[in-house]
Design brief:
Layout: H1 2-20, H2 28-35, H3 47-50, H4 55-59, E1 63-65, E2 68-70, E3 80-86, H5 96-104, E4 110-116, H6 129-145, E5 149-155, H7 166-179, E6 186-189, H8 200-217, E7 223-225, H9 228-231, H10 234-239, E8 247-254, H11 260-271, E9 276-282, H12 294-306, E10 310-316, H13 343-354
Parallel strand pairs: 3-4, 3-10, 4-5, 5-6, 6-7, 7-8, 8-9, 9-10
Antiparallel strand pairs: 1-2
The structure holds ligand IDC.
């Protein structure tokens, strides 16, 4: 008994030393740790798919067909998860333990990494591009180690028109898709919310430049495309879709602002065959603040679950605003108890736990 205990302590110590000096490249350490072995040959080449029973291990590479997302077995599959707040602003939530809590306690299978292009040290407005890219990479690495799907979100908002920072976007997605071309768990969201008077035609022109850059590295990557008016006008995308496969069109809603009329638009577009991803929604109003409307939120999520449309909730942070899921007074970045969550946090936590996902 005692010998066994010391042997496992010793094995643990050896693993800890090996992991600290990072003798294994890429994502091998977590996969090896999960297998309790130090032999890299003991896991398959795609180390992240080797961790058993994780969402990405079970469901593998995703693809779009008609209005739906499918897993590698040809079964319809729905992603559900949290969106970070701006990663430049709340980098503390990019940790392995945070994502593990979201996977195991919150029952989610997906995380969206929101990288603002302009606000708060945005990528194109003076933020350190190297630091931001390394945060994205950390986020993708942790999600990969945990077998979660991860969305790299080019978070256009104040800049309104994605064409304004198109050159930076092309460079960024070129680099990201080169890095993650063999990752089956990475999705690309190329423009969060075009807004003001930006037309669908002009978003399409932007997409026609960015999509081929991603696809040159990762030929069957799943890509999410934002739509006009803060990603609400999916009807324009349905009327004139882009000429690529494996695309999902973004619909965003804030339940205290966007109600029946936008749900009706969604239903009509899905009936028409449009593949939609609700890559961001809030339980409150469109400012990210104000009151929560849980009745409308429930109607929305029922519709999304019925149609197996994927969704991510805004936002994983402890900012003093209604849409942040962690209480402002709580600085823990993982393992939150229910009373450390905001009202919206408690509600969405219960929702995620009530649905069957993996
Ligand atoms: C909000 C944040 C808020 C921040 C603001 C910056 O919640 O803390 O000060 O952005 O402009 C969106 C956007 C998302 C917004 C959110 C709430 O995609 O970035 O976050 N929202 O306003 N679209 C509709 C609502």
């Amino acid at each position: 008994m005692l010998v066994k205990k010391y042997r496992s302590l010793l094995t643990g110590l050896i693993m800890a030393v090996l992991l600290t000096v990072n003798v294994f490249p890429g994502n091998i350490p977590a996969a090896l740790a999960a297998h309790g072995t130090t032999d890299p040959k003991a896991v398959s080449e795609n180390s992240f798919t080797a961790v058993p029973d994780t969402p990405a291990a079970v469901h593998g590479k995703l693809h779009v067909n008609g209005p739906s997302l499918y897993d590698c077995h040809g079964e319809k599959y729905q992603l559900r998860g949290m969106s970070t707040h701006g990663i430049a602003w709340f980098p503390q939530y990019i940790t392995l333990d945070t994502f593990r809590t979201l996977r195991d306690d919150w029952n989610t299978n997906c995380i969206r990494l929101a990288m603002y292009t302009e606000e708060y040290n945005g990528y194109c407005s003076g933020g350190s591009q190297d630091e931001l890219k390394s945060l994205v990479q950390k986020g993708v690495d942790y999600a990969t180690e945990l077998g979660m799907y991860v969305i790299i979100d080019w978070h256009v908002l104040n800049d309104r028109d994605p064409n304004i920072h198109k050159e930076e976007a092309l460079q960024f997605f070129q680099e990201m898709s080169a890095l993650y071309k063999d990752h089956t768990n990475v999705l690309y969201e190329i423009c969060n919310e075009p807004n003001s008077s930006v037309s669908w035609d002009s978003i399409k022109n932007y997409a026609r430049e960015v999509i081929p850059v991603i696809r040159a590295n990762d030929s069957d990557a799943v890509i999410i495309v934002g739509t006009p008016t803060w990603s609400q006008d999916i009807d324009q995308a349905a009327a004139s879709p882009l000429e690529y496969d494996n695309l999902l069109y973004a619909l965003h809603f804030y339940a205290a602002t966007h109600t029946d009329w936008l749900r009706q638009r969604l239903s009509a577009c899905v009936e028409h065959g449009l593949p939609v991803f609700v890559s961001e929604f809030g339980t409150c109003d469109a400012s990210g603040n104000g009151r929560n409307d849980f009745q409308q939120s429930a109607l929305w999520l029922r519709l999304l679950d019925d149609c197996q449309i994927s969704y991510c909730c805004w936002n994983l942070a402890n900012k003093a605003e209604t849409s942040s899921v962690i209480s402002p007074g709580c600085s823990k970045v993982s393992g939150w108890s229910k009373d450390e969550l905001s009202e919206c946090g408690k509600w969405i936590y219960e929702h995620f736990r009530s649905v069957h996902t993996r």
